[in-house]
Design goal:
The chain is mainly alpha-helical and 88 residues long. Helices cover 72% and strands 0% of the residues.
Length: 88
């Protein structure tokens, strides 16, 4: 229940994570993934004493965009291919 309510938040990185995963894999999978992420964060906070600082939705979206650009390049190198930028 907590994961679903956190997923509905509009301006947090965890809410962005939920919505991004929901679009790709569906609501149930996204809810379980967010619940696990919250459990890991809670464990790290309570057991290891780690600090959690909310970076915000804008920073999360920027990191997701960087990953989307980096991943195809990594896969191309793995298979011995080269990406060529398309000209207009």
């Amino acid at each position: 229940m907590i994961a679903r309510s956190v997923g509905r938040s509009t301006d947090t990185a965890l809410g962005g994570f939920y919505r991004r995963l929901k679009g790709r894999r569906g609501g149930l999978v996204a809810n379980v993934a967010l619940a696990r992420k919250l459990a890991v964060l809670y464990w790290r906070l309570m057991v290891q004493g780690m600090e959690y600082v909310e970076v915000g939705l804008k920073r999360y979206q920027q990191q997701a965009a960087e990953t989307e650009q980096w991943l195809p390049q990594k896969l191309a190198r793995k298979h011995g291919l080269q990406l060529v930028p398309q000209t207009a």
